[in-house]
Amino acid sequence: MVQNLGWGYGIAEQTNPKSENQSPRLIVSPNPFRGKTEIRYEIPDKKVIGSQQSVASIKIFDPTGRLVKSFSDLHNSGHSVCWFGDDDLNRKVSEGIYFVRLKTNGFELTEKVILMI
Fold first, then answer.
1. Model's pTM, two decimal places?
2. For residues 98 and 89, what is the distance between their CA atoms, to the nearest angstrom?
3. Which residue in 15, 43, 51, 116 is a FRET match for 36, CA 20 to 30 A apart?
């Protein structure tokens, strides 16, 4: 898009904020981590009836596919959970690669996270 930039004309990058919010987002930070990482997620606002909300789950798996940690009944947009490198029984897991999966209403995203001890 050609646009007046104030000091002349040039090419400006244009983004469509509506299209950026149409799919869920999953951000794990810091990554790699020691001790604690924040898992931020955004679920797109669909046109829902009444007080219905998207319900999501975040599950953490080891490389063999074994479920390590589960965060269930999460609700839409702009929230986060913290993972302290433990399993559902609050036992510390070994260092290595894990997979964080966000699942909601037909959407599924997976991010790799590295736990360092």
1. 0.74
2. 17
3. 43
Name the 3-class secondary structure at 6.
Answer: coil
Domain boundaries, the chain: 22-115
Q: What residues have CB less than 8 Å from 4, skipping those under 6 apart?
A: none
User: E-strand spans in the chain?
Assistant: 2-4, 9-11, 25-29, 37-42, 55-61, 67-75, 79-83, 96-104, 107-115
Which pLDDT band holds residue 69 (cuts at 50, 70, 90)?
very high
Domain 22-115: CATH architecture, name and number where available: Sandwich (2.60)
User: Angle at the Cα of 109 (from 70 to 44), degrees rounded to 5?
Assistant: 100
pLDDT in the model for residue 18:
47
